[in-house]
Specification:
- The chain is α/β, with parallel strands linked by helices.
- Helix content is about 40%, strand content about 20%.
């Protein structure tokens, strides 16, 4: 029996819940000849690794996670969306086309959680591939976007690239203190700060006042509740974790690879179960 293999590349990938949710989806649809794997790829051998996976590895496609979402563009044929965003998170090796399902995953999950976007002042934390997708999607949805990053020059370069490639304008990069003073109604964390195993870290420093009543969307999904999410709740705000985005972007990739409608509920349940198993006491 031929085996159709897909997976996720990144550095590291041990935290990923993608194998649990994709393999559950394959089983639910009777796709017993499909398998999803963890594929650790260091940033300095991306091109070689993609060629190997596509060739002798026999992989049909891959998802892409940090820190490779921008790097894979040079080794694939990005579609219009990936080119506009400047980052890709899904590759189909049959065509070598890369695309970005993070945009639809984030915006879809914000809307599913009843978060208003049009006319909202949104603050994006970070300037990597996930932040590119967030800025693009939020701007397209009518939000007024501010970006902050530890290295402001990188944030400014990201916005310049988005303005050139996707005509994303009226977005500004500000130091966190100034961005917080603008009282954003939505804060989207696109950094890995606070992700397992460094669960005691928070991307929001203690000496910067946190906006009262803001909605926090933390793309980190492991742990299910981060320090940033807890901080938002103590300031009278609402917090949403990134598990829904993970499942939604994964569902879009699933459909791209298989041509089948993804069983979203099955994928979500599998991801939730995997998270619960990790947090349960070991005996």
């Amino acid at each position: 029996m031929s085996l159709y293999r897909v997976g996720v590349i990144g550095w590291p990938v041990t935290h990923s819940l993608s194998p649990a949710m994709h393999n559950a989806a394959f089983a639910a649809l009777g796709l017993t000849d499909w398998r999803y794997d963890l594929l650790p790829v260091p940033p300095d051998i991306v091109g070689h690794s993609l060629r190997t996976l596509r060739g002798e590895g026999g992989y049909l496609g891959v998802n892409v996670t940090v820190p490779l979402k921008e790097k894979v563009l040079a080794h694939t044929q990005p579609d219009d969306l990936a080119r506009a965003v400047g980052a890709a998170n899904t590759i189909d090796f049959r065509t070598n086309v890369s695309t970005n399902t993070d945009v639809a995953g984030l915006i879809g999950d914000l809307e599913a959680n009843g978060v208003a976007l049009s006319g909202t002042r949104a603050l994006v934390l970070g300037a990597g591939g996930a932040a590119r997708a967030a800025v693009f999607g939020l701007a397209q949805a009518g939000a007024s976007v501010i970006v902050t990053n530890r290295t402001m020059a990188r944030a400014q370069a990201m916005l310049a690239n988005l303005a050139l490639a996707a005509n994303v304008r009226d977005v500004e990069a500000l130091p966190l203190e100034e961005a917080a003073a603008a009282q954003p109604g939505l804060i989207v964390n696109c950094t890995p700060v606070g992700m397992w195993p460094q669960v005691n870290l928070c991307p929001w420093p203690d000496d910067v006042p946190f906006p009262e009543g803001a909605v926090v969307y933390d793309m980190v999904y492991r742990p299910a509740r981060t320090r940033l999410m807890a901080l938002a709740e103590t300031r009278g705000g609402r917090a949403v974790g990134g598990l829904g985005m993970l499942v939604r972007q994964g569902a879009a990739a699933f459909t791209l690879w298989t041509g089948r409608a993804a069983p979203f509920d099955v994928m979500l349940a599998a991801a939730q179960a995997a998270l619960a198993a990790e947090s349960s006491p070991q005996v």
